[in-house]
Design a protein that fits this description.
The protein has 376 residues and is an all-alpha fold. The chain is built from 17 helices and no strands. Helix 1 crosses helix 8 and helix 14 packs antiparallel against helix 15. The longest helix is centred in the middle third of the chain and has 33 residues.
């Protein structure tokens, strides 16, 4: 759902919240820096890097295998989730009431994208990156569109970073600000999961879901720490484009920690984004026949956002539906309602991404073709 950069919509096809896919957004920022920093360093590829580049056919085969695997996971999990619905329920989802619900959900998710833009601008200010709100919103909407068709929010963030980097003539600053913006949203998401743990333990007799959520938090913190360790290692030991990217990221991280007011404001925006997704999920589920409180949604949905951000399906489809079904079932809610809720919010993600598709097509052809050339 944007439930995450893909949220029940996931700051992310998954759930967009501010950090639904934050771990992968961080990785995407690093990848984007690696690919894009040549633009501002002017470094040329070395002979050894050319030798180590795999043949085009091998790379294409690996890409197709990876894509086929993700499509397989997506279709298998979606088939399982939809099998939990009766024919009448499927007809209800396709009815006019659901269409109205879909429209309202899409509007909410577009607002969440706007909040994501605000968070990015706050972090960009810390990173000394100057961007106009309108332009930043356009880039964020385009990234949101690509998040719906790529396996995780990495693809959308790379597109957003490339567009911003060329637009402000600071590729390193663009990707560094995006990576840190995702980290801030990710930290807010982990905080929500941690806050809900005592309540989740008291709420459920079966503690397996609580144990899984705790393990996910600890693993995510480990991955987050690894990002900073690797960045420091690369900045100290390597040379060239990677070193410049790592040093820029490290210096911006220090500025982030030395700017409590702006960082606190970015965290507050992240909580509002996540809260919007939680309210949306609870509202849609109750309108579809569930009897679930906002507190219950708080206990399970942040963990589901984290799971749905994993790059193992297309746009989070399938994983999101299966995870929400498990979470709702643990709370005693009908699985069919969970699946219907996830499908409607997932479709709302797609509808809310249409302005991003339009904005992408409005870009000058030269700018789009330049991006396509870089991606290839």
């Amino acid at each position: 759902m944007v439930m995450g950069s893909r949220s029940v919509a996931g700051d992310g096809g998954t759930f967009i919240g501010g950090a639904g896919s934050s771990v992968h957004a961080i990785e995407g920022g690093a990848a984007g820096l690696n690919a894009a920093t040549g633009h501002f360093t002017g470094a040329a590829p070395t002979e050894s890097s050319r030798v180590q580049t795999p043949p085009v056919r091998t790379g294409l085969r690996n890409f197709l295998r990876s894509r086929a695997l993700r499509w397989g996971v997506t279709l298998a999990l979606l088939a399982y989730a939809i099998s939990q619905l009766s024919a009448d329920q499927i007809v209800d989802i396709a009815g006019w009431n659901s269409v109205a619900l879909l429209f309202v959900s899409s509007v909410v998710l577009v607002v969440v994208v706007g909040l994501n833009t605000v968070r990015w601008l706050l972090i960009a200010r810390i990173c000394r990156v100057q961007m106009r709100w309108r332009q930043s919103f356009q880039w964020t909407m385009i990234g949101h569109f690509f998040n719906q068709i790529f396996p995780s929010s990495v693809g959308g963030d790379v597109v957003r970073g490339m567009l911003a980097g060329r637009g402000i003539d600071d590729m390193g600053g663009a990707f560094s600000s995006i990576a840190l913006e995702r980290i801030v949203g990710f930290i807010a998401l982990l905080a929500l999961i941690a806050i809900g743990q005592p309540l989740l333990i008291a709420r459920l007799h079966d503690q397996s879901l609580s144990h899984f959520a705790l393990a996910a938090v600890l693993l995510s913190l480990g991955l987050l720490a690894a990002v900073f360790v690797v960045a420091k290692f690369v900045g100290d030991r390597r040379s060239g484009r990677l070193q410049a990217a790592a040093q820029r990221f490290a210096s911006d991280t220090r500025r982030l920690m030395a700017s409590p007011q702006l960082t606190g404001a970015a965290l507050l925006v992240s909580f509002v984004m996540h809260g919007s997704n939680l309210v949306l999920t609870a509202a849609v589920a109750n309108l579809l026949g569930a009897d679930i409180s906002l507190l219950d949604v708080l206990l399970v949905v942040p963990t589901i956002i984290l799971i749905a951000s994993l790059p193992i399906s297309i746009g989070g489809w399938g994983v999101r539906e299966a995870a929400l079904a498990v979470g709702f079932s643990a709370l005693g809610q009908p699985i069919s309602v969970a699946v219907a809720t996830s499908l409607i919010i997932g479709l709302a993600n797609l509808v809310s991404a249409l302005p991003g598709a339009i904005a992408w097509n409005w870009l000058p052809p030269a700018e789009r073709s330049s991006h396509d050339t870089r991606q290839s």
